[in-house]
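tl;dr need the bound structure. longer version: we got a ligand (NAP) that a collaborator sent over and nobodys looked at where it sits. i said id run it. heres the input, straight from their email, havent touched it
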Amino acid sequence: MTEKIKMKNPVVEIDGDEMTRVMWKWVKDKLILPFVDLKTEYYDLGLPNRDKTEDKVTFEAANAIKRWGVGVKCATITPNKERIREYNLKKEWPSPNATIRKELDGTVFRAPIIVNSVKPAVRFWKKPIVVARHAFGDIYDNTSIRFNEAGTAEIIFRSKKGEEIRAKMPEFKGPGVLQSIYNIDESIYGFARATFNYALAMKLDLWFASKDTISKVYDARFKEIFNEVYEKEFKESFAKAGINYSYFLIDDAVARIVRSEGGVVWACKNYDGDVFSDFVSTAYVGSLALMTSELMSPHGYYLSEAAHGTVQRHYYRYLKGEKVSSNPTALIFAWTRALKRRGELDGTPDLVEFSNNLEKAVIKTIDQDGIVTQDIARIMDPPADKFVYTEEFIDAIAKNLIELL
Ligand code: NAP
Ligand code: MG
């Protein structure tokens, strides 16, 4: 083997929980450290350390991404009542993903990792469908009230200068719930620009969809900003690239995406993106472990992660000493995308090439060698009767990687 690939600047490495934490180490030890002189700034967002630091470590990690520009994140537990008991937590700490997304104000791009042996459930789909989720505001930062009797409510906006805007809600005849949500122009402009830029870079059409016929102020503002950014900043470059921008109502977009052959970046508001990224990934590749998830902020901050969670059920089996067949593909791609971005920013083409080769090695292992984890074996066409355990899968990838280098 030749010399290890050198890095100029570090990547912010954010460790996580359960089975993904176990796989994180295997992936690093077998697929990265032997080949790259890895520079990282490490943050342990495993739940015990978040509890110990009273969640400060999450904010530190987000700030480190602002400092270094590039981060890679493992899946983390979002605590609930059961987790409080299981980990004896001081409190129900918020979702680290929500905290980091709010700090970075980014757009999350989720795309299928397309392998030939897994056919999309929707037979028309041939080209990638990337769901771009605005990762700021809306119900993810809602303020809500539960009330126990009839009454009235209004929304009051008070400007810094002291001016007020008021809007009355309908009268409530009995007990119920209410919720207010918000977004800000700056974030919507950033969302729009991030998606136009991404579509241009990938040479894919861009769709934006919302419900402006019903949400005549809120969603209408999103639509207006997308139109303005398109007309003023992207119309010419889109025409040159031979790609189109279209606005649809969200329900229309859902029907159209299923009938389309793909080849689209679909920009979604925060909640729509939460739902439709899982829908598209399941329908496209059938496994969350065959998805990439990349966050890009208008300031140029970048974070890649796996789209799935910590694979808790496999972890409990692993703790009992059983061998498990969890799929590390999305974690590997989180690393390749972060290293590729680092290499592009730093002008280190060796690092970019290494990332591309590692991705190729994964695809070759699945498609040509037919070596797969259980989740892929189940959904392969034709279905496979054999699968390997996680470490064997990683070893097979390492073998292919060495041949490519
Ligand atoms: P999950 O970890 O995504 O796993 C759900 C199921 O999907 C698994 O039981 C497994 O199915 C399958 N699966 C997911 N990833 C897989 C992989 N890499 N390889 C093979 N199979 C995979 O979701 P969850 O069990 O609902 O959540 C567990 C924890 O993750 C929760 O505490 C949640 O807060 C957290 N979470 C974190 C993130 C994040 O950090 N980005 C995202 C979502 C959830 P089978 O058991 O049928 O094999
Ligand atoms: Mg979701």
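gonna send this back to them w/ a short note. DSSP finds 14 helices and 14 strands in the chain.
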